[in-house]
Amino acid sequence: PRSWNALPPHLYFILAGFSNQPEVEALLFGLISIFYFLTLVGNSTIILESCFDPCLHTPINFFLSNLSFLELGFITSCVPQMLVNLIRSDRVISHLGCVVQLYIFLWLGATKCVLLVVMAFDRYVAICRPLNYLTIMHPRLCFLLAAIAWGAGGLGNSVIQSTITLRLPRCGHRHLAHFICEVPALIKLACMDTKANEIQLFVATLVLLLLPMTLIMLSYGFIARAVLRIKSSQAWQKALGTCGSHLLVVTLFFGMGSVIYIQPNSSFSKTSGKFLTLFYTVVTPTLNPIIYTLRNKDMLGAVRRLLWKDCCSMKT
Question: Transmembrane segments in this chain: where (predicted)?
Answer without folding.
Answer: 26-48, 60-82, 102-121, 141-160, 202-228, 240-263, 275-294
